[in-house]
Design goal:
Order of helices and strands: EHHEEH
CATH superfamily of the domain at 2-38: YefM-like domain
Helix content: 25-40%
Structural class: alpha+beta
Strand content: 15-25%
Distance between the termini: 55 Å
CATH class of the domain at 2-38: Alpha Beta
CATH architecture of the domain at 2-38: 3-Layer(aba) Sandwich
Strand order of the largest sheet: 1-2-3
Length: 80
């Protein structure tokens, strides 16, 4: 963790941001007292909306019926 004076931070902000993006912890201080930490921005995940596609997706009645040709493919023995 690096503690940087506010004056130094003002003159080297872009370098400090690059270092923070690389994973380094950067703390900005004033008169030796830590004030803030520079960290990479974490994008917030959008909240899910249940039922968003209700009525838009149709599942056919024969969706889970057996398909003999597909079952035959999975039941074949393969010699390696």
């Amino acid at each position: 963790m690096s503690m940087i004076n506010m004056y130094q931070a003002k003159t080297n902000l872009s370098q400090l941001v690059s270092r923070a993006l690389a994973g380094e912890e950067i703390v900005l201080a004033k008169s030796g007292t830590p004030l803030v930490m520079i960290v990479p921005y974490a994008k917030q995940a959008k909240a899910r909306t249940p039922g968003k596609y209700k009525g838009k997706i149709k599942i056919p009645k024969d969706f889970d019926t057996d398909l003999p040709d597909v079952e035959a493919l999975f039941s074949q023995k393969i010699d390696l």
